[in-house]
Specification:
With 354 residues, this protein is an alpha/beta fold. It is built from 17 helices and nine strands. The strands form three sheets. It has a four-stranded parallel beta sheet, with helices on both faces. Strands 1-2-3 form a three-stranded antiparallel beta sheet. The protein binds adenosine-3'-5'-diphosphate (A3P). Residues 90, 92-98, 183, 187, 190, 284-286, 289, 312-316, 320 line the site of adenosine-3'-5'-diphosphate.
Length: 354
Amino acid sequence: MATIFSAEKSLTSQTSDEAVEHEQEQEADEGRSSESYTEIISTLPREKGWTTEYMYQYQGFWYLSTTGVEGVMRVQKHFKARNEDILLATLPKSGTTWFKPLIFAIMNRGRCDFATHPVLTTSPHDLVPPLENYFHQNIAYPNLDSLSSPQLLFHTHISFTSLPQSVINSQGRIVYVCRNPKDVFVSTFYFLNRMADKNVEPLSVEEAFEQFCKGVSFYGPFWDHVLGYWKASLEWPERVLFMKYEDMKKDSPFHLKRLAEFMGCPFSSEEERQGVVHEILKLCSFENLSNLKVNNTGTFQLGTRKIGKHIFFRQGEVGDWRNHLTNDMVDRLNKIVEQKLSGSGLTFHDSVER
Ligand code: A3P
């Protein structure tokens, strides 16, 4: 059978000797470092969380919980990037759940039949696993050294400046997807409310907006996250592709082809003639993904908690912020973002929305 390129698949492919050795190393590391992580985290700045007791700031970015920070520290310590890897990087609620299967389907076309495609039966978050989760304290981290497949797909929410040094040093490619900050805010607000701690009163939309404007948001500040990858994409265009959710919505075939080209596997004219681009877009459409049993039933492990898979699908539209933000909120956020991004060449226009 042809190899399917996904980290999930390959992470299970080590031999039993390798697995035992790795488990021993991991146990030693757990004992050695858990306390030191806790010690460092106890000194970090914290703020009231949107739906958790506190959010913690580490290396300039905000995380939902101590375990979130610890996941990042563990990724920084253990992840060894390889030149063949493709890393999808996003801020939460920027369309990660869409781009994961898109990238997976681009990479594995020719190996998968559209009628029985893995996207139909596997959650996007298992097809392209989040690094932070693998390295989380309660989940065994994988022995990445033992992976043998030529190319792997991973995902991270970690900011460019906090990426493990091995990612920067490798020749691996990074696809960054961002989204209009007003839609990111609204989508985050509803997502976090749906996964709120039972014992914590969630912030009101006004309070959460205030935090967002201060930069205290899920892996935020928004502007620092996008700027980190934006600048990297200008400096290393062959290694970092900067994409927008709205662009993919507006002209999906064009941007899918751009993505495939960047990933080193452009569509041939024969594939285009056969409608492969269209098939991939149809397979990964909001309508198709959100109606699949694998995506609307069951739970997904996010850090220490299990959350319903269905909450990754809400509307999948551009511009839903118009239904939730007041004019004052819009003006205020527009001004902040404009000022923070000023001089960078990066802009978020509302006019591209439909
Ligand atoms: P909304 O809350 O605005 O609907 P992430 O995966 O980064 O957490 O982003 C989630 C957002 O992407 C949600 O936005 C979700 O509905 C949307 N989304 C999920 N699958 C999608 C798809 N196939 N096409 C477009 N948007 C999608």
